[in-house]
UniProtKB/TrEMBL annotation:
It comes from the Bacteria. The lineage of its organism: Bacteria, Bacillati, Actinomycetota, Actinomycetes, Kitasatosporales. This is TetR/AcrR family transcriptional regulator. Pfam families: TetR_N (PF00440). Residues 34-53 bind DNA.
Length: 207
C-alpha cells in the first residue's frame, strides 16, 4: 500500500485532489479557481498536490481525462444496450440528456474548457480537440451502421445538435431542451432512410 499522507494513502490524496478540482472546475470555471483553494478543500498540502500534479495545467488535463473516460464509458454502455444501430444512437442521445437533466449541470466540460483556453496549440485545447474528434468518429461510425449511405454529414449534424443542447440545457428548461434534442436525433435517423436526403448528404460529404 502507498505510504500515508494527510490522513490517507498517496493514491487517496490524489483521488481527493482530482475529485475536488473536478467539482470546482466544472461548477465555477478553471481560471477562477486557484491552487490554494483546491488544496484547502481537498485537505492536503501544496507539496502533496505538486507530488501528483506538476502544475495546475497537469491537474486540468487530469480533470479532462477523467471526464473523457466517463463519457467513453457512457457511450460503451449505450452501444452494449441494443444490437440495433438505430437504438444505439438513441441510447447515446439519451445518455446526453441524462446529463442535461442532472443536478448541477453546467454544460459540456470540454466546451467550457475550450472557451477558457482558446489557443489551438495549448495542451488543454488540444485535449479538448482530441476528445471531440473521438466522439465525432464514434457517433459517425454508429450512424454509418444504420444504413449503407455515408454518415459524415449526419455525424456532424449530431454533434452540432448535441453542442446546442449542452449550451441551452443550463440556460433553459432541461426537460424541454432534452426533448428537442432527442427529436432532432430522430430526424437524423429518419433522414438516413429517405433516398433523396441521403444522396444530398453523400454529395455534401464528398464536396
Amino acid at each position: 500500500m502507498s505510504r500515508s499522507t494527510e490522513g490517507g494513502t498517496v493514491s487517496e490524496a490524489r483521488t481527493r485532489l482530482l475529485n475536488t478540482a473536478t467539482r470546482i472546475f466544472y461548477a465555477e470555471g478553471i481560471h477562477s479557481v486557484g491552487i490554494d483553494r483546491i488544496v484547502a478543500e481537498a485537505q492536503v498540502t501544496r507539496a502533496t498536490l505538486y507530488r501528483h500534479f506538476a502544475s495546475k495545467e497537469d491537474l486540468v488535463l487530469a480533470y479532462l481525462a477523467q471526464a473523457d473516460q466517463a463519457i467513453r464509458g457512457q457511450v460503451a454502455a449505450a452501444q452494449a444496450s441494443s444490437p440495433s444501430a438505430d437504438d444505439q444512437v438513441r441510447a447515446v442521445a439519451r445518455s446526453i440528456t441524462d446529463g442535461i437533466r442532472s443536478t448541477g449541470f453546467r454544460g459540456c466540460a470540454f466546451l467550457n474548457a475550450a472557451a477558457e483556453y482558446s489557443d489551438p496549440a495549448h495542451p488543454i485545447h488540444q485535449a479538448v480537440l482530441a476528445h471531440r474528434q473521438w466522439f465525432l468518429d464514434t457517433v459517425t461510425g454508429l450512424l454509418a451502421q444504420t444504413t449503407e449511405t455515408v454518415a459524415e454529414a449526419a455525424g456532424r449534424h449530431f454533434i452540432m445538435l448535441r453542442d446546442g443542447a449542452m449550451a441551452a440545457g443550463c440556460l433553459f428548461d432541461p426537460k424541454l431542451i432534452s426533448e428537442t434534442f432527442l427529436n432532432g436525433v430522430e430526424g437524423i435517423l429518419k433522414a438516413r432512410t429517405i433516398p433523396e436526403l441521403t444522396d444530398n448528404a453523400a454529395s455534401a460529404a464528398q464536396s
